[in-house]
# Entry
Amino acid sequence: MDVAKYIPDDLDRRIIAHLRADGRASLSRLSQALGVARGTVQNRLDRLMETGTLLGFTVRVREDYDAQSVRAVMMIEVVGKSTTQVIRRLRGIAEIYSLHTTNGNWDLVANIRASSLSDFDRVLREVRMIDGVSNSETSLLLSSV
# Structure
């Protein structure tokens, strides 16, 4: 199968939607919910994994599970054409749990989760020391509303 040309169809999107709600759903449960054969679901999951559409399965936790952690959003400005190298370095920082490119004044947005203020401070220093990072602005997330 030509991975570059694979485009998920409606059934694939419905499977993904069900897995987003319950990543542990059995093939039987998925096939029953979608009204298709269990083998069809298995074949579609295999193809979604093979093409890289699905990268894996993960755990979702309650917002208050790690209520003691320090959470923040950091906007990052990158100088010149060093975005790829900056992204590579940022991905190596464990406390950055998601990273996004964006438009406007900032080039990247990083979501940070640290276990303490001292760890958070270390992350800020690490990011600011990366060659190619010219500016950043960080906002602590205080509460979810």
User: Anything to note?
Assistant: The chain has two domains: 3-50, 70-140. The helical segments are 10-21, 27-34, 38-50, 83-91, 117-129. The chain is about 40% helix and 20% strand. The chain has a mean pLDDT of 88.
